[in-house]
Amino acid sequence: MPEPMMGKIFDEFPDESEWDVIVIGGGPNGLIASAYLAKAGLKVITIERRYEIGGGLATEEILFPGYYSNIHAIYHMMVDYMPVLRDFDLDRHALLWTKPNSQTGMVFEDGKSLLLSRMAEDTKDSMMKFSYTDANAFGKLMWSWRKIVDDILGPATYIPPMSPLDITMAMQKTKIGQEMLELAEQSPLEIITDNFENDRIRALLLYTSCMWGLDPRETGIGMFVALMLQRGSNKCYCEGGSHKLAGAMVREISRYGGKILDTAEVTNILMENGRAIGVQLAEGRTLRAKVIMSTLDPHTTFFDLVGTENLPGDLKESVDGWKYDKWSYYTLHVVSKEPPQYKCDDPWINDAFMNIFGLDGMDQLLSHWDNVVAGKIDMNNFGGHATCESYFDPHLVHSPWGGHVSFFQMHAPYEVEGGWEKVGPELEDAILTKWQKVAPNMTRENIVRKCYETPEGIEIRLPNMRRGAIKHGDYKPIQLGCFRPNQDCSSSATPIEGLYTCGASNYPGGMVLGGSGYIGANKVAEDLGVIKWWKPTKEMERYIKTYLE
Amino acid sequence: MAQEERYDFVIVGGGPNGTAMAAYLGKCGASVCVLEERPESGGACENVEPMPGVHINPHAVYMYAGPAPGFEQLELHKYGFRMNWSPLIETIAKQQEVGVLVSDGVAPITNKDIEGWAKICGIASDPPFIKELLRATHWCPPHPPEVEVTAENIPYMQVYKKHAPDIWTEELLDMTMFDLLDEYCETEPWKVLTAAGAWYSGAAGHYEGVAVPAIAGEALVTVYSGFSVPRGGMHGYFHAIIRCALSHGVVIRTCCPVDEILIENGRAVGVRLRDTATTDEKKVWANKAVISGTGIHPTFLKLINPAHTSSSLRKKVKDISLKGGCCWVSHFLTKEPLMPRAKFLGPGRMEPGEFGGAYPCDSRDIYYEHVADVDGRKGAPSVPPEKLLWMATHSARFPESDPQCTMPGAHVAGPYYTYVPPPDYEAGGPGTIDHKKDEVNAIVRKAVSEVIENLDDDNLIAHFVSTPWESEFRNTGILAGHFGGIRHCADQWAELRPIPELARYRTPIEGLYLCNQTSGHPGALCLMAIPYNLMHILIEDGLVEPGKWWYPSPWYIPQEGKISAALNSNEGESYA
Known about the structure:
The structure holds 2 protein chains of 2 kinds. By secondary structure, chain A is of the alpha/beta class. Chain A has one domain (14-549): FAD/NAD(P)-binding domain, CATH 3.50.50.60. Chain A is built from 18 helices and 18 strands. The radius of gyration of chain A is 23 Å and the shape is globular. Chain B has 17 helices and 18 strands. In chain B, 62% of the residues are buried. The chains are: A alpha/beta, B alpha+beta. Chains A and B meet through β3, α10, β9 and α16 of A and β3, α10, β9, β17 and α15 of B.
């Protein structure tokens, strides 16, 4: 620092420092890893590039001034399973979850609707309007899928991945294991069309299954249909916004002596004799540590920070092949005087956590997705989902003008035909027109403020969501399980001594599962010989006992 | 969650004052709970990214807290605290090179201006006494009621007497800042710039009897930190404070608005949360004290049942002046960087990146016209745009590794400030000006365009505005959206701030203390000063016993019959 005329002003964070563990990236996984290891007594520091930690756990005043929005994560599906919610006393930080019974509505142009509820019987009631065969099929499937999720997919999220062969062997042990294997072999589209007959029910279920980036026609990912439909009917809202989960984690980290450095960009990982020994920051500071944990995508971690010249074996080739999510998102955030009132045959739709509209059936849905994957948006055929956040959360509005905050979100390509500069505003207009069709009070007069975020915007705000990839990489069989991000790194340790990966690009993936951070913390604790103060959850123990022993 | 929530201290409001207080108390070993209404703590120390890569600062921008004992007492460097040092800190001569913005271009600052300014700020002496002067004005609790305040015991007067007896005169206490500048400096534009800067930082250039506090309020940023900002903005500084608090076991809860301060037998015993608070238990009990980190108005007029206060006190609280500090805050997002007109640029004038300051500083008539508009006529700007006074912050405060804008092909400038009346004082009632927001925005852009040549519709992508009325809804502790807390006039300064009965942060309600920029000396600017000053009082009342890290203000006078906060301290060491 400079020597001003009055002498030294105050001390600052040192230019050089020593740590046990450096975690790169303050998103959910980085914070979870830091919290476990800080509480284990290690000297841990989390380095975050942005001015605020949280990554996708972001609740921000983008409709400035006075209105907060959840700009990324909002629908929390794994709250019931995440070990971190049991291992830490997060309640003490006023973390409160709401799980509405009315979960996902789908409103059609003719005023009919479908409503996916937390309690399957309510969903069945809604489906009965269209097909009692489908309603009963849904009841049966959810009954068995709940077991698949509770016994296998839920707990396995927090245990290092197995090879496909090992999974096959293990799953043979039980009937639901075998069911899971059968399911996995199919594509989402096959599962939905094989089990359901009604076009609108199919559209709702396929949308819910694939909305976070599954290819409906890809085989080998069928188990995600069970996971997404079951967990997609159990979405939780974090009161006060998703950022509160990040805030609660930081409070725990700080409480146990962990440190956070934000507005700090790592420019490279320091290497010595093939070993990762520290990081260099853009601002010039250097931090050294026994262990570096990166939550960033493989390209950033290995190419940009470690450097290709330092990559052993065929790591370069496997990192090279990494593919980002096949689509990203376009989100329109609005402030309206009144909350949207959907005009349809089921008033409970207005209570739903999420409402899908714009898609009247399977043809429209599939053609919308095909367009997106091809880099196009058809202004006459697109749909998405909307949530009125302030309907669930009074803490988001701090303005003399009052009103409500909502958003509409849809799948969108990173590179769009025509360019986002042109398509962005056109799409905003098309969305508002579409919204008003299903919710007549969403007139231009009712909407008092608005802003949209394109996939390019996502990447600018959160540079590690490269190409707007919210999961840091596509969910396809060769990038899932023990192949995420590659066979060498999927259990967190990497071929580079001292370097671990534990972000969304690691098993089990993104979407605030908190799995890779937890698995990474376990691995580092084991490798550093630290006593683990935590135990697996009872669901994990049962899974280990049934399938792994 | 536990059935009954009980702490030694419950703090209402997680802004910089409430949170720094929590850090101090946590460090003393007390159990503390901070309850914040908004989804994010930080109060005025906030960053907003309304569009991807566009960083704006709706409130606090510059580091004013440089001399705060809090940096070493709370050891903020351990919690990630860093600065983005501005090139302007190196030497005051650097500022001299830049000159002052006037209608004709740039008016030079003379040697006499700088020497006079340096002399009264305590930089000209060897060694400089600026740190002591600034600590004396801000980091010392007001004297106890039994002490008669005189030229001999006012802290800053003691500093002048000790270090600069040639400056010391009892008349310092009777001056406005303009009077003092007239005596020590030379050019009118420099005086106008300095007076306007003081007004935007606390005491204004024309307030009687607060010449030195006005100088000191401004010197905190112009001289002491040289217009530097913390890394990550003032929210980055706040992060260090909150993480210090957390590491000392403080519990901090957001989305937990307090609806009532619970009082039993004349004593504050806890708080009741609004039913929407994100906790199961809606009452939080305080064994030792409730500390209100929110505004003086909500504290006495909303949170305390009127059965516990006299109507006379409530009336005095209502009458506290909120004038003189309400900013209409603008940020401009443009395709091309804002470019000052040729007459303001060039050698001996400004570089585009150095651009900052007030305009137009031609004469104090312009300043007074602005005062008349804001606090006299109490309406939207009525002077012609070319005479509308505004302030621009320096873009140079952002280093390459902490940029203000990462949106490709776009540039952010701001905040640009212009004063408007506090909403409560608007002639047409609160919100009158806000209903003409677009009109006022256009006036602001026109005024700024007197200096900037390309703030036109072709270049402008977005104009982000936060008005005082919006500010007070976003941040309920910022009464009337007032950046300074409440007016820093002689009637509301030191032993009289906010009113004499409340000046030492105590209240008529036992166990209730005040810790907000509106409720105590010295006021705003995120200084960690109120918490430091209040520490003296809590020690006096036997509520905390800090360790050896604590040192009191050397000008502090203990209250009769109380425990002195100067016991067991390392005073000599830290003030050496």
